[in-house]
């Protein structure tokens, strides 16, 4: 497939890029500073900025799917608008854990123990997901990581869930590498179109 990845040089984005390349997909790796994009087979780096949505839409045009792996402080209207303007219907979002439920109707971001320093970004993820839920022109998928989203191993062994935070005896976690596996699996065999799902150990 021909895939555009926005935020290709970030922590999650770089692992997604590596996974896509390893599986033989053709990737346009978009970053504000394309020199930070890893040099990999089938990967072409491109300079792009959410702050210039018209130019971004031109870069996205002609791809089979778009992935965004960017902070939620970015305007959802600009990024979603750029994807829609590009004519690409399949849109995948690297989500956040804050929008996951820890009890019926209780989101992780609203629990007392949620770190204050991350609340603004996490609430942005909640808002982004809600924006997508009202979107009828895109075949979107929002993949939320577990609470601890960290560098680690590509084990290929993990669990999938829907809207509830996944936990085990060690807490709630997923590596960037295994998150990338789950996301690319979804792209290759869509099972959560216009849905959110989550991945964890």
Summary, kept brief:
The chain has about 200 residues and is α/β, with parallel strands linked by helices. The chain has helices spanning about 10-20, 55-60, 75-85, 120-135, 175-190, and strands at about 1-5, 25-30, 45, 65-70, 90-95, 100-105, 105, 140-145, 150, 160, 175, 195-200.
Comma- or semicolon-separated keywords:
about 200 residues; alpha/beta; Rossmann fold; two-stranded antiparallel sheet; about 30% helix
Textual characterization of the structure:
The structure is a single chain. The protein is of the alpha/beta class and 201 residues long. It has one domain: 3-Layer(aba) Sandwich (Rossmann fold), CATH 3.40.50.720. The chain is 29% helix and 25% strand. The chain has helices at residues 11-22, 53-60, 76-86, 119-133, 176-188, and strands at 2-6, 26-31, 43-47, 65-68, 90-94, 101-103, 106-107, 139-144, 148-150, 159-161, 173-175, 195-200. α1 (11-22) crosses α5. The radius of gyration is 16 Å and the shape is globular. The relative contact order is 0.16. The model has no long low-confidence stretch (mean pLDDT 95).
Helix-residue proportion: 25-40%
Q: How much strand content do the residues show?
A: 25-35%
Task: Count helical runs.
Answer: 5
The CATH topology label is Rossmann fold
Report the end-to-end length measured between terminal Cα atoms. Answer: 28 Å
């Amino acid at each position: 497939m021909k895939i555009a990845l926005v935020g290709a040089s970030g922590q999650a984005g770089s692992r997604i890029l590596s996974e896509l390349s390893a599986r033989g997909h053709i990737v346009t790796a978009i970053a504000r500073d394309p020199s930070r994009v890893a040099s990999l087979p089938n990967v072409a780096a491109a300079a792009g900025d959410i702050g210039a949505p018209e130019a971004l839409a031109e870069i996205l045009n002609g791809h089979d799917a778009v992935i965004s792996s960017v902070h939620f402080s970015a305007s959802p209207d600009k990024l979603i608008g750029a994807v829609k303007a590009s004519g690409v219907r399949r849109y995948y979002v690297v989500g956040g854990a804050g929008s996951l439920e820890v009890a019926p109707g209780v989101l992780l971001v609203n629990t007392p123990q949620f770190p204050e320093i991350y609340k603004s970004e996490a609430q942005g993820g909640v808002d982004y997901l809600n924006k997508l839920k009202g979107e009828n022109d895109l075949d979107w998928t929002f993949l939320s990581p577990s609470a601890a989203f960290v560098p680690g191993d590509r084990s290929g062994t993990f669990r999938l869930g829907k809207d509830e935070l996944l936990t085990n005896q060690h807490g709630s976690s997923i590596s960037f590498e295994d998150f990338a596996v789950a996301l690319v699996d979804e792209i290759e065999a869509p099972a959560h179109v216009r849905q959110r799902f989550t991945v964890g150990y």
